[in-house]
Write a structure and sequence with these properties.
six-stranded mixed sheet; 30% helix; 553 residues; 14 strands; 18 helices; alpha+beta
């Protein structure tokens, strides 16, 4: 109550209450329960309007109903009982029947709606107690509440009455819904960060938080979470889209500066780093420290609780165990990186974070717990493993020819042409950057970046890449794929992925679909219904099972 709510929400209007409800409120009572074994007389109130249709009128427009039953989860029911407000919100912001449907939003939940129609007549009514005076005033003693010829003495004992005031065709039930991130992207796509012409200007199309709440069918809490976690930044009170290319450029500049300055990745002065990055890229690209923090979110170290011991990396722990002594960051071997950021990813172990300063020995040999800790808001802590993964993903943004030249990889022989089974990009086709990197070549690059002693297999490559790349199953090549640009609807996402390439490895396709499936849905069963399986002989005598488009899609 009292909080700003979106204006687009279609709230239920306060219609004139039925007579039973008005009398109930006036009396200060509450609707009572039916007593077992006791007959309660029922009647239709004066304002009742039926919605039934005769069979001969079944093709006509159905009469408008004033009532609808809505089934709510326990949490939203409690919120409503405590005085909260639920409102309907258009999903696409359109008008009429083509508005993309609607969600039901509460303070911290977004629910999709489905309507179950019932061909039987369904009525809603009040059951309440009535006094002798009320019965007399409403004609109860004259037979209105009972059948004709009924014993008058029995009528006097009637203490309850049921009054039907509405008719419904069915009921609405709800399901948890995900916030449409693509809708937020579309709204903010006209105001990307990094455009010099927009700096210092506040055009009408720039959107504030309240404007986004008006346009996006989501609860305020969930919308705030999307803005916090996604590539969106608030500059001077207006939300801007952080383009993937600019985010990658800011991230690359930041880790390069940390390495060049010799700063500890786990304890970086935020203001100093911001000044360096802004000087390098300009104030249009990095207008505030919050933009820098948002760009570094993929490599930022998770916060640690006070007193938590530093985490030892698995690789370093193995070496320490073999040597029979604790490992030290200074003894860890350096990894080969793509550029001058090698120093950031050199040591596989994580150095103490800011909170470790509270337990570090002071000059007197005692824990400096009483010493004032560094202000967390002015420090940035980078995770070495995440920075290393960033370097791995950067390989996909570099032309194959440059990657082969940097890592001394031989240029592969032209691949034999094979018949394509559908749409998608030809992974083995040559372009200005040379043939695309094969999975084996990428494994070699990954081995050099991580400093692994053994040759990496395809499983290791995909474990490192996650959902940031896909494999052309026919050519065996690796290609970048920005998962954040994929639709949130499972069927739309599947259609987009099948447009990227016609056939997918079942496990890799499931990894892209699982995050957007509803609770309780099994991704393998869902894919069996939405795709068709084919067996392709990629190597002589060896068939591989792939998933492709169904004929009806």
């Amino acid at each position: 109550p009292g909080a700003a709510r979106p204006a687009r929400g279609v709230r239920t209007s306060r219609r004139r209450a039925p007579r039973a409800a008005r009398r109930l409120r006036a009396g200060g009572g509450a609707m009572v329960s039916l007593m077992e074994g006791v007959d309660v007389p029922a009647r239709f109130c004066d304002t009742f309007v039926g919605t039934d249709q005769d069979v001969k009128d079944i093709s006509n427009v159905k009469p408008e109903t004033k009532w609808c039953l809505l089934e709510l989860p326990k949490e939203q029911m409690q919120e409503l009982e405590q005085g909260g407000t639920l409102y309907f919100q258009s999903q696409a912001g359109g008008t009429g029947v083509d508005d993309g449907g609607a969600n039901l939003c509460s303070r911290d939940a977004t629910l999709s709606l489905e309507f179950l129609e019932n061909s039987n007549s369904q009525f809603i009514a009040w059951v309440q107690e009535v006094t002798a005076e009320e019965k007399a005033a409403e004609g109860a003693a004259s037979g209105e509440l009972g059948a004709e010829g009924e014993n008058p003495e029995a009528k006097k004992s009637v203490t309850q009455v049921c009054e039907v005031f509405g008719q419904v065709r069915g009921h609405l039930f709800t399901k948890p819904a995900q916030v449409n991130v693509q809708r937020v992207r579309a709204l903010l796509s006209k105001q990307p960060l990094g455009v010099e012409a927009t700096m210092g200007v506040k055009p009408d199309q720039f959107m504030t938080t309240s404007m986004l709440q008006y346009e996006v069918a989501a609860s305020p809490a969930q919308l705030s979470a999307v803005l916090e976690e996604g590539p969106f930044v608030e500059v001077d009170g207006y939300w801007r889209l952080l383009p993937t290319a600019l985010e990658r450029e800011i991230l690359d500049a930041a880790v390069t500066i940390v390495s060049a300055r010799g700063w500890e990745p786990e304890d970086v002065d935020a203001e100093a780093l911001f000044a360096e990055v802004q000087q390098h890229l300009g104030s249009a690209s990095v207008p505030s420290l919050e933009v820098l923090r948002k760009s570094l979110r993929t490599v930022a170290a998770p916060p640690r609780s006070a007193g938590e011991a530093p985490t030892q990396a698995p690789a370093d722990a193995d070496k320490a165990s073999a040597a029979g002594k604790p490992s030290e960051a200074a003894e860890a071997p350096a990894a080969t990186a793509l550029d001058s950021t090698a120093a950031v990813t050199a040591a596989p172990t994580a150095a103490p974070t800011l909170l470790d300063s509270a337990t570090a020995p002071s000059d007197g040999g005692k824990p400096a717990a009483a010493a004032a800790p560094k202000a967390a808001g002015k420090r940035i802590s980078l995770d070495r493993e995440k920075v290393r993964k960033f370097h791995v993903l950067q390989v996909l943004q570099t032309t194959p020819a440059k990657v082969r030249d940097r890592f001394n990889l031989p240029t592969p022989a032209p691949r034999p042409k094979r018949q394509r089974l559908g749409g998608g990009r030809p992974g083995g086709a040559s372009d200005a950057g040379g043939p695309a990197l094969s999975v084996e070549e990428f494994g070699t690059v990954l081995q050099e970046i991580t400093g692994a002693t053994e040759k990496l297999q395809a499983e290791d490559v995909w474990k490192a890449l996650g959902n940031q790349a896909y494999c052309d199953e026919f050519e065996g090549t690796v290609h970048a794929l920005d998962e954040t640009t994929l639709p949130q609807d499972p069927r739309e996402r599947l259609a987009r992925l099948l447009a990227v390439q016609s056939h997918w490895n079942p496990e890799r396709l499931a990894a892209f679909i699982a995050p957007v499936l509803g609770a309780g849905q099994k991704v393998d069963a869902w894919l069996m219904k939405q795709t068709r399986a084919v067996h392709v002989e990629l190597e002589p005598g060896k068939e591989v099972r792939l998933l492709g488009k169904k004929f009806a899609m």
